[in-house]
Protein backbone atom coordinates (compact mmCIF):
# COMPACT_ATOMS: atom_id res chain seq x y z
CA UNK A 1 0.00 0.00 0.00
CA UNK A 2 2.86 2.39 -0.69
CA UNK A 3 1.94 5.70 -2.23
CA UNK A 4 4.09 7.47 -4.84
CA UNK A 5 5.12 10.85 -3.48
CA UNK A 6 4.90 13.18 -6.46
CA UNK A 7 2.04 11.70 -8.51
CA UNK A 8 -0.24 10.50 -5.72
CA UNK A 9 -3.63 12.23 -5.70
CA UNK A 10 -5.93 11.48 -2.79
CA UNK A 11 -9.47 10.81 -4.02
CA UNK A 12 -10.70 8.55 -1.21
CA UNK A 13 -9.86 9.03 2.45
CA UNK A 14 -10.27 6.06 4.77
CA UNK A 15 -10.23 6.96 8.45
CA UNK A 16 -10.13 3.55 10.08
CA UNK A 17 -7.87 2.03 12.73
CA UNK A 18 -8.66 -1.63 11.97
CA UNK A 19 -6.22 -3.14 9.44
CA UNK A 20 -8.63 -5.91 8.37
CA UNK A 21 -11.38 -3.40 7.58
CA UNK A 22 -8.92 -1.22 5.66
CA UNK A 23 -7.83 -4.21 3.55
CA UNK A 24 -11.42 -5.28 2.84
CA UNK A 25 -12.31 -1.77 1.74
CA UNK A 26 -9.20 -1.52 -0.45
CA UNK A 27 -10.21 -4.74 -2.22
CA UNK A 28 -13.58 -3.18 -3.04
CA UNK A 29 -12.05 0.12 -4.15
CA UNK A 30 -9.92 -1.71 -6.69
CA UNK A 31 -13.16 -2.34 -8.63
CA UNK A 32 -13.73 1.42 -8.86
CA UNK A 33 -10.26 2.23 -10.11
CA UNK A 34 -9.71 4.27 -6.95
CA UNK A 35 -7.32 1.92 -5.13
CA UNK A 36 -4.29 3.93 -6.24
CA UNK A 37 -5.85 7.11 -4.86
CA UNK A 38 -6.63 6.01 -1.30
CA UNK A 39 -5.10 7.53 1.79
CA UNK A 40 -5.43 5.65 5.07
CA UNK A 41 -5.40 7.47 8.38
CA UNK A 42 -6.00 5.65 11.66
CA UNK A 43 -6.41 8.61 14.02
CA UNK A 44 -9.22 11.17 14.22
CA UNK A 45 -7.04 14.21 14.97
CA UNK A 46 -4.59 13.26 12.25
CA UNK A 47 -7.48 13.05 9.76
CA UNK A 48 -8.82 16.45 10.83
CA UNK A 49 -5.37 17.98 10.47
CA UNK A 50 -4.94 16.40 7.04
CA UNK A 51 -8.28 17.77 5.84
CA UNK A 52 -8.21 21.22 7.42
CA UNK A 53 -4.69 22.51 6.86
CA UNK A 54 -5.00 26.22 6.09
CA UNK A 55 -5.91 27.06 2.51
CA UNK A 56 -4.95 26.31 -0.10
CA UNK A 57 -5.58 22.62 0.40
CA UNK A 58 -5.76 21.16 -3.09
CA UNK A 59 -5.69 17.56 -1.83
CA UNK A 60 -8.98 18.06 0.05
CA UNK A 61 -10.58 19.40 -3.11
CA UNK A 62 -9.77 16.11 -4.82
CA UNK A 63 -11.51 13.90 -2.23
CA UNK A 64 -14.64 12.26 -3.63
CA UNK A 65 -15.50 10.09 -0.61
CA UNK A 66 -14.59 9.53 3.02
CA UNK A 67 -14.94 6.16 4.75
CA UNK A 68 -15.10 6.86 8.47
CA UNK A 69 -14.94 4.72 11.59
CA UNK A 70 -16.76 6.28 14.55
CA UNK A 71 -14.47 4.88 17.23
CA UNK A 72 -11.06 6.39 16.58
CA UNK A 73 -8.09 7.31 18.75
CA UNK A 74 -7.77 10.96 19.87
CA UNK A 75 -10.94 12.28 18.17
CA UNK A 76 -14.14 10.34 17.54
CA UNK A 77 -15.47 9.88 14.05
CA UNK A 78 -18.61 11.82 14.98
CA UNK A 79 -16.54 14.77 16.19
CA UNK A 80 -14.48 14.63 13.01
CA UNK A 81 -17.64 14.49 10.91
CA UNK A 82 -19.17 17.45 12.78
CA UNK A 83 -16.01 19.49 12.17
CA UNK A 84 -15.98 18.60 8.47
CA UNK A 85 -19.66 19.37 7.89
CA UNK A 86 -19.06 22.88 9.27
CA UNK A 87 -16.71 23.52 6.36
CA UNK A 88 -18.33 24.37 3.05
CA UNK A 89 -15.96 22.18 0.99
CA UNK A 90 -17.04 19.07 2.94
CA UNK A 91 -20.77 19.68 3.33
CA UNK A 92 -21.66 17.53 0.32
CA UNK A 93 -18.76 15.07 0.41
CA UNK A 94 -20.09 11.50 0.58
CA UNK A 95 -19.24 9.95 3.95
CA UNK A 96 -19.69 6.26 4.65
CA UNK A 97 -19.65 5.50 8.35
CA UNK A 98 -18.32 2.11 9.45
CA UNK A 99 -18.90 1.32 13.10
CA UNK A 100 -19.49 -1.32 15.74
CA UNK A 101 -21.71 1.10 17.65
CA UNK A 102 -25.30 0.00 18.05
CA UNK A 103 -26.25 3.18 19.90
CA UNK A 104 -29.35 4.66 18.22
CA UNK A 105 -28.07 8.16 19.09
CA UNK A 106 -25.02 7.54 16.89
CA UNK A 107 -27.22 6.50 13.99
CA UNK A 108 -29.47 9.52 14.47
CA UNK A 109 -26.47 11.87 14.61
CA UNK A 110 -25.11 10.30 11.42
CA UNK A 111 -28.44 10.94 9.72
CA UNK A 112 -28.43 14.53 10.95
CA UNK A 113 -24.93 14.96 9.54
CA UNK A 114 -26.11 13.51 6.21
CA UNK A 115 -23.90 10.45 5.93
CA UNK A 116 -24.28 8.59 2.65
CA UNK A 117 -24.27 5.14 4.18
CA UNK A 118 -23.93 3.47 7.58
CA UNK A 119 -22.15 0.10 7.63
CA UNK A 120 -22.32 -1.94 10.83
CA UNK A 121 -19.28 -3.86 12.00
CA UNK A 122 -18.20 -6.50 11.74
CA UNK A 123 -18.18 -5.53 8.11
CA UNK A 124 -18.67 -8.09 5.40
CA UNK A 125 -17.73 -8.21 1.76
CA UNK A 126 -21.40 -7.67 0.89
CA UNK A 127 -21.85 -4.62 3.16
CA UNK A 128 -18.69 -2.97 1.83
CA UNK A 129 -19.69 -3.85 -1.74
CA UNK A 130 -23.00 -2.08 -1.26
CA UNK A 131 -21.41 0.99 0.34
CA UNK A 132 -18.80 1.32 -2.41
CA UNK A 133 -21.40 0.72 -5.14
CA UNK A 134 -23.67 3.40 -3.65
CA UNK A 135 -20.89 5.99 -3.53
CA UNK A 136 -19.39 5.28 -6.93
CA UNK A 137 -22.69 4.34 -8.61
CA UNK A 138 -21.53 0.86 -9.55
CA UNK A 139 -23.68 -2.18 -10.14
CA UNK A 140 -23.88 -4.04 -6.86
CA UNK A 141 -22.09 -7.32 -6.40
CA UNK A 142 -24.58 -10.14 -5.97
CA UNK A 143 -24.70 -11.77 -2.59
CA UNK A 144 -22.62 -14.94 -2.49
CA UNK A 145 -24.60 -18.14 -2.98
CA UNK A 146 -24.97 -20.17 0.19
CA UNK A 147 -22.49 -22.98 0.26
CA UNK A 148 -23.86 -26.45 0.06
CA UNK A 149 -22.56 -28.93 2.50
How much helicity do the residues have?
25-40%
CATH homologous superfamily title: Response regulator
The SSE string, one letter per element, is EHEHHEHEHEH
DSSP E strands, number: 5
Rounded mean pLDDT score: 80
Quick one: overall form?
globular
Reported for the largest beta sheet, the result is:
5 strands, parallel
Low-confidence parts lasting 5 or more residues at pLDDT below 50?
A: 2-6, 139-149
Strand content: 5-15%
Provide the spatial order of strands within the biggest beta sheet. 2-1-3-4-5
Count of domain modules = 1
CATH class: Alpha Beta
- What is the CA–CA distance across the termini? 37 Å
* CATH-derived architecture: 3-Layer(aba) Sandwich
Computed CA radius of gyration, to the nearest angstrom = 15 Å
Computed structural class: alpha/beta
CATH topology name: Rossmann fold
Number of helices: 6
What do these coordinates show?
The protein has 149 residues and is α/β, with parallel strands linked by helices. The chain has a single domain, classed as Rossmann fold (3-Layer(aba) Sandwich). 37% of the residues lie in helices and 15% in strands. The protein is built from six helices and five strands, in the order E-H-E-H-H-E-H-E-H-E-H. A five-stranded parallel beta sheet has the order 2-1-3-4-5. Strand 4, helix 5 (104-112) and strand 5 (117-120) form a beta-alpha-beta unit. It is globular and about 30 Å long. The N and C termini lie far apart (37 Å). Residues 2-6 and 139-149 have low confidence and may be disordered.
List strands and helices in order, with pairings:
Elements: E1 12-15, H1 19-30, E2 38-41, H2 44-51, H3 58-62, E3 65-69, H4 77-85, E4 95-99, H5 104-112, E5 117-120, H6 125-136
Parallel strand pairs: 1-2, 1-3, 3-4, 4-5
Amino acid sequence: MSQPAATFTVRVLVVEDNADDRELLLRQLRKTGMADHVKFISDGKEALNFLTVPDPLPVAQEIVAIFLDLKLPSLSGLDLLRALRQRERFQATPVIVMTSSNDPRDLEECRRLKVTNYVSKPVTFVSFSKAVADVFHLPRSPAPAPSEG
